[in-house]
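Both lines are retained for reference:
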Amino acid sequence: MTIKACVFDAYGTLFDVAAAAREAAAEPGQEAFAAVWQTVATDWRLKQLQYTWLRALADAHTDFWEVTQNGLDWALEASGLEDRELRERLLALYWELSAYPEVPEMLASLKSAGFGTAILSNGSPDMLAGAVTSAGLGDVLDDVLSVQDVGIFKPHKSVYQMVPDRFDCAPEEILFVSSNGWDAAAAAGFGFRCVWANRSAEPMDRLPWTPDKVLSDLIQIPEIAAQF
């Protein structure tokens, strides 16, 4: 069945979630943070995701900004950092995450080929708006869909249902792309055609479903979308 729209996870897929910590570590006076920034960035992202899963299971939804702050607080404490100014700087930079280099051209190619384009993210609408604006992607996205509209985080099925509802199509007419293996797998289980952007060369998650393709970046997405 022909693909009608290509939909992307945001953080780690279109936007580099390590960028905030990397940029802060390069700033003057941040020598102590520079020594541990990679550990902080990894812990921050892991806890951010874990808290979304736990909140979904416990029926304790909140906005993604609170989860993002909670994850950072855990990561800073784990590395022995108690620096209020550093915390505020990292959070400010998270609103301005860089897009991966191939993203603008890839999305423009999809638009030129007639595909719908959108983000489907755990992010809150204001966070996503900030990232899209900072990266200059507004002109190449048809929509930005947030879990805030359904009140539960991925991988709940109601999140994925937002996409066929938005584009008025069947799930198999959607190509979904995520850098999270569990997200790509769950979306495949929902019925999307899926690509896992496995930027870190991780093993495949042991889940009942698998993505259609695994890539190391997003360069080939327009070509793949045209092949289905």
About this structure: The chain has a mean pLDDT of 97.
